[in-house]
C-alpha cells in the first residue's frame, strides 16, 4: 500500500493531491454536482428569458404604397397601415420610430426606421412615410428595391420622440436650433410638419448637412418649411464649385454663426451623426444653453 506523507503547508490541499485511485470526499462531489446543476439551471433560465423577450415583439404585415428615389442613396418609402388601426394610432409624437423586417429575408436583421410623416398623416391617410438610406447588405437596401404592393412586417411605433414640452411655451423659448445630417432629416421633417409653434418663435433655424445637393432630401419641401417659420441653412461638406452657401460640417457652420441672443430662451433639436451631435451639444452648453433643453429622439 502506498503511503503519502504531506508537508504541513500542503495538508489543507490534500484532496487535490490524492492518487487517482482515491475518491474525493463526498462533500466535494456534492459541491461540484450542485455547481453543475446551478450552472445548467441558469443557462436554461437565460434561454427561456431570451425566448420570451423575442416573442414579445408583435409583427404586423403591411403593404408598400410606394418606393421612389429621394436623393442619392435615399428613398421615399410609404407603407399602408390603414388595415391596422392600432399600428397607425401608435404614432403620437414626432421623432418616434418602428422596426421593419422582410418576411422573405429571415437572416436579415430588422431595420429601425424613424417615421418621417407627422402623426396626423397616419390618422388622415392611414400611411407612414419614411426616408430610408440604402446601406449595402442591410434590410434597408432590400426594402429600397421593393415595389408597390410588396408586403413588409412592422412593429407598432415606439420611443418617446422629441419632447417639445421641454421647450414650451414658445413665448419663453424664442430660439430653437435644429441640427440634422443625412437621413437624420427624416424625424425632423415629422417635427416641422407636426408644428411646434414655429410662427410664434422669431428665431427657428435648421442646419441641415449633406455631402452635396444630390444627397440632400426634401429640397422640394424647403419653401413650405420656411413659410411655417423655419429658416433653412443647408451645409454641404463636398459641394461643387457653384455652391455659394455654407461649406464643411453642420457644427462648424453653427460655430461660425451662433447668434444666440438669450441662452435661457433657447432650445435645440438634434438628429444625425454621433460626432455632429456631441460637438453641437458641447457648443450649445458652452454658450449657456441648458442641456435639459437639447432634445433627441433616442
Automatic annotation (TrEMBL):
Q: What's one Pfam family the UniProt record gives for this protein?
A: NAD_binding_1
Q: Which Gene3D superfamilies match?
A: Nucleotide-binding domain of ferredoxin-NADP reductase (FNR) module, Translation factors
Q: Which CDD domains match?
A: FNR_like
Entry-linked InterPro entries: FAD-bd_FR_type, FNR_nucleotide-bd, OxRdtase_FAD/NAD-bd, Riboflavin_synthase-like_b-brl
Q: Name one GO molecular function term.
A: oxidoreductase activity
Recorded superkingdom: Eukaryota
Q: Where is the FAD-binding FR-type domain?
A: 57-164
> What protein name is recorded for this chain?
FAD-binding FR-type domain-containing protein
Q: Which organism is it from?
A: Rhododendron simsii
Amino acid at each position: 500500500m502506498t503511503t503519502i506523507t504531506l508537508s504541513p503547508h500542503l495538508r489543507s490541499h490534500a484532496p487535490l493531491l490524492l492518487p487517482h485511485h482515491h475518491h474525493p470526499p463526498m462533500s466535494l462531489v456534492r459541491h461540484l454536482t450542485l455547481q453543475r446543476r446551478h450552472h445548467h439551471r441558469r443557462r436554461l433560465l437565460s434561454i427561456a428569458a431570451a425566448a420570451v423577450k423575442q416573442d414579445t415583439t408583435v409583427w404586423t404585415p403591411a403593404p408598400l404604397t410606394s418606393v421612389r428615389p429621394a436623393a442619392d442613396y435615399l428613398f421615399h418609402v410609404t407603407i399602408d397601415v390603414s388595415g391596422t388601426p392600432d399600428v397607425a394610432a401608435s404614432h403620437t409624437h414626432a421623432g418616434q420610430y418602428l422596426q421593419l423586417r422582410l418576411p422573405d429575408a429571415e437572416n436579415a436583421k430588422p431595420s429601425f426606421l424613424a417615421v418621417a410623416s407627422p402623426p396626423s398623416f397616419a390618422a388622415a391617410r392611414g400611411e407612414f412615410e419614411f426616408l430610408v438610406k440604402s446601406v449595402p447588405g442591410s434590410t434597408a437596401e432590400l426594402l429600397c428595391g421593393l415595389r408597390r404592393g410588396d408586403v413588409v412586417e412592422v412593429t407598432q411605433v415606439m420611443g418617446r420622440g422629441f419632447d417639445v414640452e421641454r421647450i414650451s411655451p414658445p413665448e419663453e423659448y424664442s430660439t430653437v436650433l435644429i441640427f440634422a445630417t443625412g437621413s437624420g432629416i427624416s424625424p425632423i421633417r415629422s417635427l416641422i410638419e407636426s408644428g411646434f409653434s414655429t410662427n410664434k418663435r422669431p428665431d427657428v433655424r435648421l442646419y441641415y448637412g449633406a455631402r452635396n445637393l444630390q444627397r440632400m432630401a426634401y429640397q422640394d419641401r424647403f419653401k413650405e418649411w420656411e413659410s411655417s417659420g423655419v429658416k433653412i441653412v443647408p451645409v454641404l461638406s463636398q459641394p461643387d464649385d457653384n455652391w455659394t452657401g455654407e461649406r464643411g460640417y453642420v457644427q462648424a457652420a453653427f460655430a461660425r454663426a451662433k447668434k444666440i441672443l438669450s441662452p435661457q430662451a433657447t432650445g435645440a433639436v438634434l438628429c444625425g451623426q454621433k460626432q455632429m451631435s456631441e460637438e453641437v451639444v458641447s457648443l450649445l452648453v458652452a454658450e449657456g444653453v441648458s442641456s435639459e433643453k437639447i432634445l433627441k429622439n433616442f
